[in-house]
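Morning!

As promised:
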Amino acid sequence: MSGVEGFMYPNEVELQWSLLIVLYPYITGLVAGAFILASLERVFKVEAVKPTYRLALLTALAFLLVAPLPLQLHLGHPERSFEMYLTPHRSSAMAMFGFVYLWYLTVVLLLEIWLEYRPDIVRFAQTRTGVTRWIYKALTLGSENLSPSSLRIDDRVGYVVTVIGIPSAFLLHGYVGFIFGSVKANPWWSTPLMPVVFLFSAMTSGIAAVLVLYVISMKLRKTPIDMRCLDTVAKYLFYTFVIDFSLEMLDLVQRTYEADESFRSLDFMVHTRLWLSQVVIQIFLGTLGPLAVLAVTQLRTFSETLRRRLYITASLLTLVGIFAMRWNVVIGGQLFSKSFLGYTTYKVQFAAREGLLPAIALMILPFVLFYALVKLLPPWQEHKATEA
Amino acid sequence: MEMTRRDLLSQCSKLLVLTATAARALEQAGNAPAPGDTYHMADHWWGMIIDIDKCIGCGNCVRACSQENQVPAGYFRTWVERYQVTEDRDHPLVESPDGAINGFPPTTRPGVKSFFVPKLCNHCADSPCTQVCPVGATFISPDGVVLIDPEYCLGCRYCIQACPYGCRYYHPEKDIADKCTLCYHRITKGLTTACCEACPTGARQLVDLKNPKDPVHAFLRDHKVQVLKPQMATGAKIFYNDLDGSVR
Amino acid sequence: MNRFLRDSGHLARPALVLVAGLAVFLVVRGAVIPKNFGKYGHYRPAALDLIRQHPAAFAGQDQCLACHDEQAKTRASGKHAHVACEACHGPQAPHAADFVNVKPALPDVAALCARCHENDAAKPKNFPQVVTAEHSGGVVCNTCHQPHNPHL
């Protein structure tokens, strides 16, 4: 069989989880990260990041709506996926997905957005005309009460929802890590650190995504960028990335030092088939690169323009690096034989069901949704100030 | 609300009709034991003994399995590996050309320990594959066989990832996970598995660990047996006699 | 207190939407969940019967011997006493079910014998093996050996 080196069990030659399954943890990671950034302002009172609060919520929602699509597209029988809700198997990490997802979508994200946007929704329902008026009418759920006391109650409930939301975001993504980390048959995945590493890499990628989206939105709207906000977001990006990198290095050191039966096989894989995606792209380009850039911005003072460019560079590299990390976990975990005697190859198809084309479409879709959401629920606070 | 006797009767008769229809439907689906079916799941606990010292690598089992179960080409419910172990025990040369469906090209390497290892689903009592199935489409039957419900499987392939032995594959036409059923359709009718039937040397023996008269008990007492990857603690029920430590 | 109730009244609306959604889910779930799910464990019991319905391709020793007692007698005294008929003749359930119309083809002896008896270092030492090219020089096995009782 072409692409096989050494010995694979005959059924192992073909990879089971494709590029689409790489997208799934990447997208949920962006959701969790964006939400946690939003909660910084709300729960931890980091006032400086306020300009990104609503943007982060909408980013989280846009990506969350897309998150189940790669899974659905990957299933052999997508029409049977509702069985996860009918007969969820309690011992399966995957069975929880549907429930965690719905909980997070409805009880956390939609509720928080609704509470946050209620004054705007009611205002639009009263001022807009035509079809949009009816959309906003529906979104008010029939209540147009904007009394100061009701808004105070909203604020307090919103706070509680965010407090519930933080562990929920941790759950959503930590548990994605557990799906991989609990597979004892696969030494590349099986580590208790997996959920934690997934969580911190999620936060890193989510913060980077919001930073990029914030700068791009401001550029498009020709509005000055709040540099205090950007500096703070970049600072948090740096901190979470340091933790994420430390955890990943801890995992690496532990594996190398213990050198169990799988080590030689995995080590060989990292030095050959994963060299480009793991060492070059993930570690050097996608981790050490942005960390160095961010470290420099923390140590030295630069002009605003230069800082902005450095932050954007670091964030984009981060997004590439975290994507490479997901790739290396999902694909890397299937390139070696569980006999530890051989390796297979993964070739991404283009216009197939699990190929590059649907993957690109799935990565564009959240931005389309984001655009629509921004149109529907404008996150710009200064806009509100001028209108009011 | 008060129920009249007539209402009650009509309700009862409806219920009766429903039950009868349901029973008939179940019978047609083969759910109720067919007349003459004396098989009781609770009386059995299936496994297999594989005697490495008897395997000649002819590939009869692989072919028989394929013929019995219409296994798609390139995928294997059972296969045979040939190990060639030199002094460097960590790097044995292992081959399984097309799962050994046509046996092996002969080898005569002097000074090399070599032997065949037939593989199949280990029908683990603590199976990691059934543990991860999100919907209950793969399960351990009451008689100890790990099975897949072909009409319920989503095709998410988590079970394939979870099997430490590479025994599962994704069926390219049915779009579900597929694997050895230990010829459940045969062993529940008093036949042995297709692979055991076709094995010319008796290297594979279907065993019923719950049957006190099964020779397996004597065999396990008299031989030093091993399961594959015991460190995985899966409760594997395929026992190998004289298995070399280099086998993965 | 009254004012508090009035000003938090709008919160009941999303709660109502959630509860309604949950209720719809529970009703639908109750209606479409497979019959008897969980009877033996977390799976459909009907799956067991579905799998049992698969037709057998190998008839099994007992069925062969029900007719072919002569071959069985020949085989019993020789080295192939414990080799089942279908190990060499292939799956014969269709033949067993309709022996008038379904006639099995004879096996290709040259390939068949070599599969087991061609010399290979990995085969057990006590198993009879030959290098066919040297052993017979191309003469097919059953010229000298009787397959059902392969003594010379």
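Confidence is low (pLDDT under 50) at residues 1-6, 15-32 of chain B.

Hope this helps with the figure draft.
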